[in-house]
Amino acid sequence: MPIYALNGLTPVVDPTAFVHPTAVLIGDAIVGANCYVGPGASMRGDFGRVQLLDGANLQDNCVMHSFPGRIALVETNGHIGHGAILHGCTVGRDALVGMQAVIMDDAVIGEGAFVAAMSFVKSKEQVPPRVLVAGIPARVLRELSEQEMAWKRRGTEEYQELARRCLDGLRECAPLRAIEPDRPQNVSDVRPLGEYRSRTS
What we know:
- By secondary structure, this protein is of the alpha/beta class.
- The chain has helices spanning about 145-170, 195-200, and strands at about 5, 10-15, 20, 25-30, 35, 40-50, 55-60, 65, 70-75, 80, 85, 90, 95, 100-105, 110, 115, 120, 125, 130-135, 140-145.
- Helices cover about 15% and strands about 30% of the residues.
- Strands 1, 2, 4, 6, 8, 9, 11, 12, 14, 15, 17 and 18 form a twelve-stranded parallel sheet that branches. Strands 3-5-7-10-13-16-19-20 form an eight-stranded mixed sheet.
- The chain is globular.
- InterPro entries: Hexapep (IPR001451), Transf_Hexapept/Carb_Anhydrase (IPR050484), Trimer_LpxA-like_sf (IPR011004).
- It comes from Roseiterribacter gracilis.
- Pfam families: Hexapep.
């Protein structure tokens, strides 16, 4: 995988974490235990630190970066959706950042909060714990339910399990020429939030 030391700082990856071979880690980039870093993700620790604490995930094509002397931090069990951008911000424990959302410098996403997909959280914004924010700029819409928090926790656990599966079994290979008969599918109880609500109501 593309991992680069810079200015005397070498990225750190816990042995229980999975970093996809196409992800890029530079300089002061730190990946904690049981983390998942997806294809095409970029953790650029060339100015400030970029860090994932234990159990966090940074999905496909996400970007983490920061100004010098600052940190872009995802706390324990933080969940960062495909294509999100985190710049010099803090994403709190058990928080979720939706796909293609942008979180700016010195913003803090509170513990267990959700940032909706494609939202923009402006610099220095303080998102309270356990609320849903959405929009450009993002605004608090409402508090989150226990059902929604349970859905998020289950999804994050699935990414932690994915990290283990990838460490154990992800291998580069040549493609098959055709679909084999009775091709198996991955099975899980994880569902989109709307479907999860209807099944657990």
